[in-house]
User: Fold these one by one.
Assistant:
Number 1:
Amino acid sequence: MSNAENDSKVKTIFGKEKNPSSIEPKKLTLDSPLKFRCHPGVRCFTACCGGIKIVLTPYDILRLTKRLDIPAHEFLHVYTQPTYLEKTDMPGVMIKLREEDNKCPFVTPEGCTVYTDRPTACRYYPVGMADFHEGGSRDADGKEVQSAEEKFFFTVREEHCKGFEEDKEWTIREWRADQGVDVRDEMNKEWLRLVMRRKSYGLQATLSEPAKRMFFMASTDLATFRKFIFESSFLETYELDQETIDKIREDDVELMLFSFKYLAATLFGAQALKIKEDKIKAKVAQIKERQDEAVQQSVKEYEELKAETAKQKAATGIKKQ
Ligand code: SF4
Ligand code: SF4
């Protein structure tokens, strides 16, 4: 199956635009009823694990690398392929399906082999949530400007999925708690906000290549991001308290959450990180020095031009005599 075909079947974390034909046109709340059950006894068991696009969040990658006990670079190489996130120029990864059967590499006839660490998109299915930035969005100072309770949900009802024929009834809230999506939402939300923010800018304003590389590295490979923090001039540049430094040195989740702040600061100028006063002064001095050099250079060029003109005039005068 081609990528385009994969796109038509999407376990999505990015809201309601994808796969519109199978989205039920009904706005659901956390208390809306849901008649659905997925278990190994359904006729379609694992049918949703093939021919599909599953985009991974940084937390998905963190959990899967721990589960498989392999470094991120190996995980990325073996189990993923590059993609762009939600119609933006932000690079990300999606699960690379097996060549032989176009299925997820973690699926077996008995089910998902990474079930307790399965990606966010797999946990959502078949209940999607409207765009994250619509729920609990914040202003530039980080103040909540829209209640997270205003978010809404929808179901994706695909032909192959027979879970809707099962008898189990619960609320969307209960389904989400059962699937563990609330924790995932908390872990993913600042990263999703970055993507949604980028999306809202449109493709006119493109990200620079170094910015793309930094976004990709921080989003997919925490070990390399940690090296960047501790083995570059990062800590000399940014104001970080000792507690934060200790946390991000030891704790991968803290490091991941910190990386979102760093990306918000570098990609969108958010005030999440403060550059050290002496670094700002040094930068200002450097700019001033460059400006001074430029002024001196133009004064020099002007003086040379003046001297040259005077020389030519004198030469012309001599000739006339
Ligand atoms: S990770 Fe698990 S649940 Fe998700 S598509 Fe693969 S096998 Fe299915
Ligand atoms: S019931 Fe739906 S979610 Fe469960 S295995 Fe079948 S297709 Fe997948």
Number 2:
Amino acid sequence: MSAAAVRAGAVVVGGVHVFADTRIDRHAAAIAAVIDPAFLAEAGWDPTRKVLSFDPEHPLLGRPVCRAAGCSTSAQAASRICFSCCRRLAERGLGEDEIASLPPRARQRTGRGPDTCVVDGCRREWESASSGLCRAHADQLRALPVTDVEEFLAHRQTRPLPPCAPCAVAACTRQRRHPDGLYCGAHQQRLRNALACDPHLDETRWRAVEPAIGRGGEVSLRGLAPLVVAELLVGLQQRCRINAVKTDDAVLRALCNDVRHRQVSSLTHYDPGDDRDLEFTGLANCLIGHARRALSSPETEVAQDEWDLTVFGHHGTVSFTGISQTWLRESAKRWAADDLPKRRVRPGRRTSAGLTVRHHIGCLVRLSESLCMRDDRGEHPAALGRADMEAFLHRLAYLESVGQISGDARIRACREVRAVLARIRAMGLTRPGGLAAGLGEDFVIGQADVPAEPEPAEPNRDLPPEIMRQLCTHLDELTSPVMRTGIELAIDTGRRPEEICELDYDCLTRDDDGQPVLIYDNHKANRPARRLPIGEQTAAVILAQQQRVRARYPHTPVGELKLLPTDRRNPGGRRAVTGFSLAFAHRIWVDRMPVLHTADGVEYDKAKIVLYAYRHSYAQRHADAGVPVEVLRELLSHRKLETTSGYYRVRDAVRPARQPHLAASPSAVGFRARPPRSRRGRRPVRRVRRTIQRQGRRRCLPVPVPLRRLRPLRHRRLLPARSACLPRRPAAHQRTPARGHRPR
Ligand SMILES: [Zn+2]
Ligand SMILES: [Zn+2]
Ligand SMILES: [Zn+2]
């Protein structure tokens, strides 16, 4: 059932498995149709009682249960002993470690709160746990000449009784205390307290909004609109199936109580507010998001003014409401709908696609604001021309001058508006009858209109060698083996943080000559399974981590394991740590170190020590070792030499090794720390090149063919790689190496 069909008023059959009373509106029924009966069984949903009863053993919905014999109360404390059993222990003078010798409870209890009366066949709830009798039978016991409950149960006048009506509080799952009363015992007491506080209490409203009496593992959805019930259930289902995160029954209960208290008609109208804790807000936003998406698809989403990008496989939302001109707003939507499918998605990972689209739309909002200054508010595309575009460009210049946007943002705004307008034209939207029909030919941003970009600064993000040395002496202070491995690999291999995090368990292999090679995915440039020659020391770090991972996840197939599994929501070891958590652990580690000093004795700014700086340091120490720029480009997995040149400076003082050797670092800072004459364990450039080249199409060739451009250069200085002419004239340096590559 699509959302459009629901809005169109289609007749709906369904929801029988969710609701005992199927007289519900079409929207609720459509959502109910999305709910899997298997999930409802898993979550212990009772359609008649409208109560969820989670199995304590459920991996995501379960709860810790008291260790005492015959007790099934929730026990959140580290000792796993509930409050009441703690008291029973204390009464008997026993310690927590003697829980096994605690006698079982007199009566088996399914949880806190009343169970049914112990009289055979009686369907009323007991009044007190000690006697186990309902109120009527307790009164009868006192009237009869019997001494104890056993005798009473066997008495001929003892008859089972029909259940009392349910408590008048909408949420309550209990029976009325007395057939003539309105409430259960607990609610009777609560009402008395509420009336004492506020004598003018509106009792009808109180009945509607008062929470149920909490019971471990149970969540009452009574007293909520059928639509809200369906939304909560579908949200919980998707949370378990898609997010695979734990849900605490107490937090879910609190959320349901708040939703009931505000009497919202749909979960999508609910706002958790700012004064709630993270767990509550996280759960609420998760369920609201899933409820909203329950009926949406890319086809329905593009008709809205706010898009949930999750529907398109990306992250976040994008809003078009800031664009006031109809033609521009609709054209922007068409552009976004055209652009999103071209962007890469990564299962289970955030992508930057949403950010990019949001940024483009943000620039169009600025254009829209500028067009609003016209008398016709820019509503007619045919009336727009060069003067309007100039006004927009002036506006951007003004915004930069008053500091509202940065110079970089101004350049990006020009480029992005230029790109969107060009795409709109290419899609034919400016043709007669199109969304932007007749848009002026001169309503464009030319290449010359984009302000010139400043020259990039000289690369200097690498860390000085003495700082690297000091960092390495503190490696032992990293207590988490996963984080330590991640940081050591970042220092050793110069891979990007997200490439380190995403390493597979079997990321280590050997070349034909037995030398270790790291296999990683360059996600940024979409180049999977790259090969990087590494040193034996680095290989040993990986091997040790592999052993730890295997010991921790002995049952997961090796091919599905990650080298750096996260601690959170990761029962099978298939999820890796995020770049964020690795960076967080790294930041804490660096901040805890004593003050770091440069060679001049000056305090070094710790803010510069970020994970990405190790990539720059890697490039710089290879450049200093005389590695040719083309080889370095391959080592860094760049497509363009210009990119590589942004990673190192040419240093006159450093004398490169006669024959460059790579990736034989005995330690993380080995390249710099080791005296240059030691050659032990180094790898000739030719072998390194072969290792790198054995990927992509070349893998199917019988013998690796060396790239012509990758010949080691014999000149003493490295070329500042800005000169794009270098790869185009590969023969030049072979004949006259010194002249062809003199730095400018
Ligand atoms: Zn207990
Ligand atoms: Zn009874
Ligand atoms: Zn009640």
